């Protein structure tokens, strides 16, 4: 049986590794439009910040060789021919398959497609992007950059560039950075610290309206409030689009069953897969590494053994790159909020029926795992959540375990 | 695999485990070199919980949530000892591990092992290098009251361990009379402090 993976990202790499661990000895081909061994997108901004390139290849640069995989690199998949069981690439190759693992990931979405043709404008999603940005910074002697889009990837990009010594302005349309992974108060708390402690120049309620271009080269940008900024580098992080069109005809994700099958013989996982949420059951694109990994493992076990079940995805996010105040965001921010805030610590949980529906923790990771555990296990916490949030030393889990009563303070 | 079990009822909060761990983890392996060294790494933390004390550290879970969450390939399982080991050379301190560790066993700082001049994650490595020399983990050797015991963990416990930390607790040997007395005194002292406060 021949297996082909569309993509060499985290889901595909974990899938192949799991297949080999399960004893699958047949042919595997991995296809990617990039020229690299599997790398970790979570890690690549560190390459820009100064870490060596080797450290992004999280499963080793010899992955293909070690896993006895035939890589088909710098080939972009454009068509899945189900009748003939063929994968066709833009570069003219066609690869037959018995089972297909479709994990083509996602790509940067730009509000004006033609911007990306301008020298100095980059997306921030792939290692190809990072290498191009790195080379450009070196060639142009970049000292000032604008990041458009203040979500997770935008802030990640801004912090990496700032760490490298570049002056960064981050432009975001909302009233706070990280607006998708925070509520208003939590987001504003985080934004304030990203501006003061991390040193980002933050422009909220703003968008990049126009570019100033000279002979194909970026010279500056104009914001919606009329400000003009001189810069030769713009990073666009206004969103991502799943690369699902070659499989489904549209770039809006691939629906999968609990076996990760999108149809007989074709698995989908990672950033393209529409899965159900473990807690809320709401289907969506839950594009984080732990989800991708579990999906890959389930698909591999299903392929080898004929049975395996994916329980569901979680939307967990944490940002602690180049900053000393982690920003953790999990679940949905609906229900009754319980908040504890002191100095540089902000902790808020949303309760529904006495159980945690979602939470935001900013400043430390002290109780994060305990709260995560309570969230996933759906344990009733209405009687002690205030105490857990206010626990600065991380004793609440251990107090519970040692069956000690909460001290009565009068 | 062998794991470190905790009998917290025998812990007298002497913090001998913390010192032994710090010496073991320090490049000099010398107590005096720790003084004033901000990069000192201590992988066990004696936590005061009311009148009790609990030495908190990595439980080397199977499966380990931190290992599954790590997107940089920095956390792996040592094939010889089954310890969950973190490689600081490729750790990016992204905190994915700390976000899911129910035991609060992962910390962050610029340790002696941190490259590139920034923070990395650090946690107990079960002294897996000592184990290969036939020694016990440093904290276990340093524990004079037998609150920390290094012993074989059966498969059943490993399965239950993911749900519940209680399987790492010992206490089946009964409590020596001196410990009972000590704990009773602590309990009274804490009750007195609480009533003073209120």
Protein described:
The complex is a heterodimer of chains A (about 400) and B (about 200). Helix content of chain A is about 25%, strand content about 30%. With about 400 residues, chain A is an alpha/beta fold. Chain A folds into three domains: about 5-105 and about 240-305, FAD/NAD(P)-binding domain, CATH 3.50.50.60; about 110-235, FAD/NAD(P)-binding domain (3-Layer(bba) Sandwich); about 330-400, Enolase-like, domain 1. In chain A, α1 runs parallel beside α8 (about 290-305). Chain B is α+β, with helices and mostly antiparallel strands. In chain B, about 30% of the residues lie in helices and about 15% in strands. Chain B has helices spanning about 15-25, 30-35, 65-70, 95-100, 130, 140, 155-160, 175-195, and strands spanning about 1-5, 45-50, 50-55, 75, 85, 105-110, 120, 150. The termini of chain B are far apart. Chains A and B meet through α8, α9 and α11 of A and β2, β3, α3 and α4 of B.
In short:
The complex is a heterodimer of chains A (410) and B (198). Chain A is α/β, with parallel strands linked by helices.
Question: Which CATH class of chain B applies here?
Answer: Alpha Beta
Please tell me how large the radius of gyration of chain B is: 18 Å
User: Number of DSSP helices of chain B?
Assistant: 8
Q: Which stretches of chain A of 5+ consecutive residues score pLDDT under 50?
A: none
Biggest contact = A-B, 44 and 39 residues
**Number of beta-strand segments of chain B:** 8
Relative helix content of chain B: 25-40%
Tell me how many strands of chain A there are.
27
Quaternary status of these chains?
A: heterodimer
Mean of all residue-level pLDDT scores of chain B: 88
Outline the low-pLDDT stretches of chain B: none
- Overall CATH class of the largest domain in chain A: Alpha Beta
> What's the architecture of the largest domain in chain A, going by CATH?
3-Layer(bba) Sandwich
Largest sheet of chain B: 2 strands, antiparallel
Q: Which CATH architecture of chain B would you pick?
A: 2-Layer Sandwich
Summing up helix and strand content along with how strands pair, one would put the structural category of chain A as alpha/beta
Helix coverage percent of chain A:
10-25%
Strand order, largest beta sheet of chain B: 1-8
Strand content of chain A: 25-35%
Label the overall shape of chain B.
globular
